[in-house]
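Lab meeting, item 3. Inverse folding demo.
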């Protein structure tokens, strides 16, 4: 499909809208919120481990919501969930500076969990894949690229806003953005179920058969381990870079570089997955993730190379995990399948954020990222022995 043909396809623009949605939701909740950490830790007079527990709450609580959201998506479509998630995101950002203690922050992150389930990767991926069946790999790559775009744009913008207005006003100014995206989705996005039954699915495999297959188990386990490392890296990256006495702007730039490289990995992997088998690509991307984390442990002189390699590796993996699920198991039960895997990813990510914060507080970031590296090596071993082409894996 040529570029001109892409521009004339409604599905391509729906996929771009999904990119914007994920940029807003994941970007503001994940890397975008991390630049507030120093100010929040000082304001509430708490340790990093105590503060970072809020991120684990977001992802751990989202495991319950994601499963329910996946069932809803398969029955009624994604648009209502996307709208709910965006308006909740705006409300939480407005309330965040007003709460009096860390306990209330934990409560707000419970609402963030609902945002991630309603307007996060799972709903965006299903929406993009449904409306752009001609190039599902590219559609999914665009959707998951939103996390990287958000990580690239939001940290430096939020840092500049904090420096200009202070963190309280900066957060409330940011709350306007999800409202604008809400209005765009409301007026532009059709409900996916409006054209249900039009032959969008390549093939369908029973949900029970899917979740009991060895391929599904290996992919899910590898994804959970990878998310442990990736979300630890994104959530703690700013503070880790600051531990080398870097200026906040420099640390934010490194975090943005990590996201830019992840973006390139997602888009390139999504594009080429529509054209070539990607068993080897899966292994290569996982190997890059392992190498990048190893370089991250070598210290300040290796940080730039580390974020480039780890970011590109993670970006490709983020796209591939979702592309594999749709390619192997079809679109008809994509909500349940992606919701189940997203639950495992959220558990891995939430444990990773909390464990990394704990280890960094009571030991060192070196030990914390060493544990993350070990889990990535285990994920590489699982990916290495998992077939990711054709329907053979679904039958395994």
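The presenter then showed the designed sequence:
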């Amino acid at each position: 499909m040529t570029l001109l043909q892409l521009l004339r396809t409604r599905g391509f623009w729906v996929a771009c809208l999904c990119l914007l949605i994920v940029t807003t939701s994941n970007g503001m909740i994940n890397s975008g919120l991390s630049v507030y950490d120093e100010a929040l830790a000082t304001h509430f007079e708490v340790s990093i481990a105590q503060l970072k527990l809020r991120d684990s709450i977001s992802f751990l609580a989202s495991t319950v919501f994601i499963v329910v959201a996946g069932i809803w998506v398969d029955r009624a479509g994604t648009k209502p969930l996307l709208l709910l998630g965006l308006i909740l995101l705006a409300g939480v950002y407005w309330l965040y500076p007003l709460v009096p203690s860390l306990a209330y922050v934990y409560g707000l992150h419970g609402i963030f969990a609902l945002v991630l389930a309603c307007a996060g990767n799972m709903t965006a991926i299903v929406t993009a894949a449904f409306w752009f069946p001609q190039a599902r790999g590219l559609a999914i790559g665009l959707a998951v690229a939103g996390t990287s775009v958000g990580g690239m744009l939001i940290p430096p913008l939020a840092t500049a806003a904090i420096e200009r207005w202070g963190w309280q006003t900066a957060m409330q100014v940011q709350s306007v953005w999800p409202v604008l995206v809400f209005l765009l989705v409301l007026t532009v996005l059709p409900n996916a179920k409006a054209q249900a039954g039009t032959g969008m699915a390549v093939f369908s495999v029973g949900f029970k058969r899917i979740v009991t297959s060895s391929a599904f188990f290996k992919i899910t386990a590898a994804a959970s381990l990878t998310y442990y490392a990736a979300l630890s890296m994104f959530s703690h990256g700013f503070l880790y870079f600051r531990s080398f006495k870097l200026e906040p702007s420099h640390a934010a730039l490194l975090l943005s570089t990590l996201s830019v490289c992840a973006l390139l990995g997602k888009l390139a992997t999504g594009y080429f997955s529509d054209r070539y088998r990607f068993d080897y690509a899966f292994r290569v991307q996982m190997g890059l993730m392992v190498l990048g984390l190893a370089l991250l442990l070598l210290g300040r002189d290796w940080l730039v190379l580390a974020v480039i390699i780890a970011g590109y590796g993670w970006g490709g993996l983020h796209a591939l995990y979702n592309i594999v699920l749709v390619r192997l198991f079809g679109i008809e039960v994509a909500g349940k399948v992606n919701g189940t895997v997203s639950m495992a990813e959220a558990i891995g990510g939430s444990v990773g954020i909390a464990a990394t914060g704990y280890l960094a507080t009571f030991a060192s970031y070196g030990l914390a990222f060493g544990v993350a590296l070990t889990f990535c090596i285990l994920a590489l071993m699982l990916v290495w022995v998992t077939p990711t082409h054709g329907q053979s894996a679904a039958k395994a």
